[in-house]
Amino acid sequence: VPEKAEFARFEQVVLPHLGAAYNLARWITGNDHDAEDVVQESYLRALKFFDGFRGSNSRPWLLTIVRNTCFTWLRQNRFSELNTELDEEQHGKEKEPANPESILVLAAQSEIVRKAIEELPPEFREVVILREMEGMSYKEIADIASIPVGTVMSRLARARSRLQQLLSGHRTSGVGA
Amino acid sequence: MKCREARELIHGFVDSELGLVWNLEMEHHIHECRGCSGAHERLRAMHTVLSDNSLIFTPAAGLQDRLRARLRSVSRAEDRVWTISPSWRGIGIAAALVLCIAATWQVAITTQHFSTTETIGQEVVASHVRSLMATHLTDVPSSDQHTVKPWFNGKLDFSPLVADLADRGFVLDGGRLDYLGNRAVAALVYRRRQHVINLFIWPTSQPDSAIRTFDRQGYHAFDWTKDHVTYWAVSDLNPEELRQFAEMLRSTEQLAACAAIASDVNDRRTSISVYD
Fold first, then answer.
1. Binding-site residues on chain B for chain A (CB distance < 8 A)
2. B212 within 8 A of B121, measured Cβ to Cβ
3. Is the Cβ pair A163, B46 closer than 8 Å?
4. I want to staple B59 with a disulfide (CB 3.0 to 4.6 A). Which of A153, B18, B63, B271 is the partner?
5. ipTM value of the model?
6. pLDDT band at B145 (very low <50, low <70, confident <90, very high)
7. What does pTM read for this prediction?
8. Out of A36, A132, A164, closest to residue B63 by CB
9. How far apart are the first and last CA of chain A?
10. Which residues contact A89 (CB under 8 A, 6 or more apart)?
């Protein structure tokens, strides 16, 4: 039966990206329970539309579905979060830019970095996750989030500059700074 | 290369997204310029921090198995539909025949309506695409509903609802006169992020209808009729948000007021001076 073979192919091609799917969903929804729901929902949708998938790279294809499911979830459950703007005001205190070493120290302090990423509005958070953690290209991110490539770059630039700002506030509270 | 240019390209550079030529120019500039070199180092440090494994959420141990089981049961349920025991097949076929006959009736009744919707839908999408191609998206470019609405005065035999949905993330961009289904219609232009939404409005004698969906060439459209006014919202925006837009408009209270005038127009077929 072709259906069976098709399902086996689905398991083989799409299921291995569960980690990436979960990571994105977890970052957007902000908690384990909803992330699991969104991931399950996404996989059910993916299975339904698998017939139409002809490409060779199933990861961005799956992440597009996950991303859309996440944003549907946001609209239903966290509408206010969708309307938050990126806070880009210079907050005065930190005039001189951080030196790279003081940023690198933060790699050992994932809680601080995690909080900073969580402060970004979802549209900015997703490009950071897809680029920095999942290593997706601008083109792939543009397809996943249905935005132009130029917007991917400008969102990344703004998100990174906001993150630097947020993290530089923690420089002094870092390990033996 | 100037610093200003370098700072614009520096993210593309760090992400290896620049072509060969720009890459070389950037390397050269960073080598020469201390400021940009510092910015570059900071971005690389940020990448190290942000791509650290400790930030990646891994699914709970059981998720993969649960997911697999659920997917299996769904796909099996779909198979089951086609593997009913033979004794039931006869009944199934008989039932299907009855359904077919009933459906044919239904189709006969709705075909006429459907084909009109189909034709108008195609016209709407075509008009949307045309409006984006030409440099003529709006005749009256304004985000102020009180500027856009009166502009239609004397140009149409009805006064369209111009809703302000800026606080809901749909910014009014202006209005335009358009021609659809052999009549002049109002086209309102809204923006959601970089997506343009054309909202076509005209009075009709059709009864109210729920919001229906129509897809063509990657564009989505939703249409509905309320209080003798037909609305078509069309865009390349994702269907969820476009539906949300349609639902907000459909439930806008002002509609009631607008509709009274529109149906008045419809009945008397006279041109009415505008209420605002």
1. 11-12, 15, 17, 38-39, 41-52, 54-60, 63-64, 66-68, 70-72, 74-75, 78-79, 169, 193-194, 238, 240-241, 244
2. no
3. yes
4. B63
5. 0.88
6. confident
7. 0.56
8. A36
9. 65
10. none
